[in-house]
Amino acid sequence: MYNLGTVFRFEVIRSLKKKSFWIMSLAFPLLIGALFAVVYFSNQATDKAANDTKNQKFSLVVTDESGLVDKQLLQQFDASESSDKQASIDNVTKGNVDAYFYYPKTIADKSVEIYAKDVGLFDDGRYEAVAKALLQGSVSMTVDADKTAVLQDRVSFGTTTYKDGAKFDGIQQAIIPGVFLVLFYIVIAMFGNQMLVSTTEEKENRVTEMILTTIQAKTLIIGKILSLVSLAMIQIVIILIPILLAYILMHDQLSLPGLDLTSLPIDPIRIAIGAIIFSLSFLLFTGLLVAIGAIAPTAKEAGSFFGVVAVLLFGPLYAASLFISAPDSPIVRFLTLFPLTAPIPLLLRNAIGNLSLVDLVLGVIILATSAVLVMLIAVRLFRYGVLEYSRRMSLKEIFRR
């Protein structure tokens, strides 16, 4: 194993020198940056268009059979009244008037009718906005501010919950432990392919024979796995730093919700549990993907297995609501304890705080045992499958040897 450090340094340095590694690492933050830029400029353009529309004047005729619209408010909009509905519609049709609003006698049962000149898909919305403003402004004059707030659903609510005699905010409690779930998803989604091809690259280049004359297969595969873990950590840092900088420097311009990191509750136990589950899960799937790459003759064939792994890994996300509403159900416990589906349920349930002590202990033991077994199997698969260039070896054949 004295060559382990050599293998580790070689794999890490070789990957860091590849343009594809940096492109893949920077693609996600660049994509997020591009999305933020689109949102920012879209918001700017929308606000400008809305203000322009709001300031535009148009000729208006109103028929108010409901008796709700205030006469003084109509004067503010330079609107004239009419008692002949059909004649007013004809005037709009002929272009003599820009818009005509008809308020029926019972607006609770019938719709307010709007007839108007087309001024474009976006600007056509100004007619409904004015018709609504006339109605709301008129009614608010007859109702006090508190009742108006209730009717317009503008009442704010402040909820304080308690757990074990202390204030408890479940959402804030889940933020820091939930970071491990997000990181695991990002790393596997972006780094999974590199895990697969890490053991097939030398096979396709036909240099494995020369490498194995000086390094044992066990040393080589462990060095590759450790290098993949280190490269994944580097990639996490590369992804997070630009996102955090963009949030800190531009969250006001992008109208992003403010978040006071200093007020977030820190639960050392749940954070430590999240870190342990994340580490064991990553080791398990790193070993699994490396093992698949060891028995596949080419990177293309190895890639065909990634879809199966992805379904097992991310499939539990479709049952995320079940993990919250029914954490003790049999299906939730099965997904939590089955090693190939366990990472997402364990990380999610730990974040929201409904992971029982029994499920936690069993889940960690199963993940740790599975990770060790997968690593041992990966070494064995690599030992017998690394020199197979034209066919994929079966598990039965490998274990028979």
Task: Describe the fold and architecture.
The chain is mostly helical and 401 residues long. It folds into two domains: 4-29 and 171-400, no CATH class; 57-151, D-Maltodextrin-Binding Protein, domain 2, CATH 3.40.190. It contains 18 helices and six strands. The chain has helices at residues 4-17, 19-55, 71-76, 85-94, 125-140, 145-151, 170-197, 201-205, 208-212, 217-250, 268-295, 299-303, 306-314, 320-325, 330-337, 343-352, 357-385, 395-400, and strands at residues 60-64, 79-81, 99-103, 113-116, 162-163, 166-167. The strands form two sheets. It has a four-stranded mixed sheet with strand order 2-1-3-4, sandwiched between helices. A two-stranded antiparallel sheet has the order 5-6. Helix 2 (19-55) runs parallel beside helix 10 and helix 7 (170-197) packs parallel to helix 11. The radius of gyration is 32 Å and the shape is elongated.
Please outline the helices and strands.
Blueprint lengths: L3 H14 L1 H37 L4 E5 L6 H6 L2 E3 L3 H10 L4 E5 L9 E4 L8 H16 L4 H7 L10 E2 L2 E2 L2 H28 L3 H5 L2 H5 L4 H34 L17 H28 L3 H5 L2 H9 L5 H6 L4 H8 L5 H10 L4 H29 L9 H6 L1
Parallel strand pairs: 1-2, 1-3
Antiparallel strand pairs: 3-4, 5-6
Helix pairs in contact: 1-10, 2-10, 7-10, 7-11, 7-16, 10-11, 10-17, 11-16, 11-17, 15-16
